[in-house]
Specification:
The protein is α/β, with parallel strands linked by helices. It has 19 helices and 18 strands. The strands form three sheets. A nine-stranded mixed beta sheet has the order 3-4-5-2-1-6-7-11-12, with helices on both faces. The longest helix has 16 residues. It is globular.
Length: about 475
């Protein structure tokens, strides 16, 4: 049995902005179920404390660079007995809004201080200096918000082995030299082989340079980030660490209990690969929800995402407009929020095609399940996608994904053939023309119900549970060495 400290800035269902939160709950749970002593540490955000039934103060620690002592609160991850530690500094975390910014959007101006404090607290826990009589064998950090922790303990004796997982390299935690000085970090970190990145402080580099090993959330993304197109200026460092055998990719899993069409409490009619006819009830219910005509023979497309360029929402809008202008038997339902321009473009599309397009701006967990169960195909034309989870949910629900061949999308979706083989539809170039070809392929195959259903059954039999991914992480922990 290993002792694992799992550090993350967001954990479902307490605080969530994206896939990191899902992984930060599901992976520790899967490791716990496989007999590991895993504990999660996260900031004590106001929303997080409100969502928990209760917490107990188990330690009070003094951190470098901060005047007031910081409490460590203990609770349990909801619906489990996994230990959850919360770094409680009200000045930094007791606020309305999200984990990284205020309700109106943007970033908190003191994010450098907020997550430097979090990283310092992680380091104290990792070194068993909080008086809790527990030291991990492995410190598993996730994304830039935890990136300073591996750096802070790198030269310490009797430290745990460290693993740093990149969930999205596009977000690096970059701050000015003045903020570096204000954080009272060791001056030796300020060089190109440390935390300095083109005269800025990079939290991400803390993990990339100082962790014993680096992982990311799919094998293809591990290769992509070593190239100029996807590396955001860090490709040389990542390629070097890959050559050392210290960079690997493990495809994320999904929670097969939470995402299970047989027992999903959010959907109208539970169904399975053996009772696929019930999926039609969910399609009709979804069409009613979005005030669309209940037409069973129309190809109903779904899109759930942050509305940002990465996700290819502009490609989706462009191609769906072309299809609807041409009179194609297609409907589209969208759930998401983000760039105001993309939100407006979706609303314009809905206004132009009120009987063909449904849009909800925001996020709704229940509706996300209803969309996965109700649509026929799910559109994910991402320009890059480290792993992606919605294509995995879609496969589980017999909803065929239409994806660009990048990152985890390439690793998890098998391209259809004319005989009903495969589990979805792939395309290579991030252009409207390439997506249009893929959507037309899907439309053509949808007109052949026997072949379509054959693909649905194949998709639903694929196993993307966390048990498989957790086993791969356990093997990686075994391979960690100082």
């Amino acid at each position: 049995m290993r002792k694992i400290l799992f550090a993350s800035s967001e954990v479902h269902p307490l605080v969530k902005t994206g896939g990191l939160a899902d992984v930060s709950a599901s992976l520790p749970l899967a490791l716990h179920e496989q007999g590991q002593d895993v504990r999660i540490v996260m900031p004590a955000y106001r929303a997080c404390l409100a969502a928990l039934e209760g917490t107990v103060v188990v330690a009070s620690i003094k951190l470098e660079g901060f005047l007031l002592p910081v409490e460590i609160l203990e609770s349990r991850l909801p619906k489990s007995d996994v230990v959850l530690w919360l770094v409680n500094s009200p000045y930094h975390y007791d606020r309305d809004g999200g984990p990284y910014g205020p309700p109106e959007g943007g970033d908190w101006p003191d994010n450098a201080a907020r997550f430097a404090l979090f990283s310092r607290a992680i380091a104290v826990l990792a070194m068993n200096e909080a008086g809790l009589s527990w030291q991990p064998d492995v410190l598993h950090c996730n994304d830039w918000q935890t990136g300073l922790a591996p750096a802070l303990i790198a030269d310490r004796e009797e430290r745990p082995a460290t693993l740093f997982t990149i969930h999205n390299l596009a977000y690096q935690g970059l701050f000015s030299r003045d903020e570096f000085d204000a954080l009272d970090l060791p001056e030796l970190f300020w060089h190109m082989e440390g935390l300095e990145f083109y005269e800025q402080l990079s939290f991400m580099k803390g993990g990339l340079v100082f962790a014993d090993k680096i992982s990311t959330v799919s094998p293809s993304y591990a290769e992509e980030i070593c190239t100029e197109e996807y590396g955001y200026g860090l490709e040389g460092l990542l390629a070097y660490r890959a050559e050392q055998g210290r960079l690997s990719g493990i495809l994320n899993g999904i929670d097969h209990d939470e995402w299970n069409p047989k027992r999903d409490p959010y959907i109208t009619s539970p169904y399975s690969a053996k009772k696929l006819d019930k999926k039609a009830d969910n399609k009709a219910a979804l069409q009613r929800h979005f005030s669309l005509p209940q037409e069973p023979d129309v190809l109903l497309l779904g899109f759930i995402s942050r509305l940002v360029s990465q996700k290819g929402i502009d490609l989706t809008i462009s191609v769906v407009r072309q299809l609807l202008d041409a009179g194609a038997a297609v409907q589209l339902v969208c759930l998401g929020s983000g760039d105001p321009d993309y939100e407006r473009d979706l609303q314009v599309l809905r206004a132009r095609f009120p009987g063909k397009v449904g849009v909800t701006i925001g996020y709704d967990e229940a509706l996300s399940h209803q969309i996965e169960a109700g649509v026929d195909a799910f559109v994910m034309p991402s320009r890059f996608e480290p792993c992606g989870l919605n294509q995995l949910y879609s496969l589980r629900y017999g909803t065929l994904p239409i994806v660009r061949t990048t990152g985890g999308l390439a690793d998890s979706v098998e391209d259809a053939d004319q005989l009903g083989g495969g589990t979805g539809f792939q395309f290579e170039l991030a252009t409207p023309e390439a997506l249009l070809v893929a959507l037309n392929r899907a439309l053509a195959l949808y007109q052949q119900p026997v072949l379509w259903q054959q693909m649905q059954v194949t998709a639903m039999k694929r196993d993307f549970s966390w048990q498989n991914s957790a086993a791969a992480y356990l093997a990686l922990y075994d391979d960690l060495s100082l």
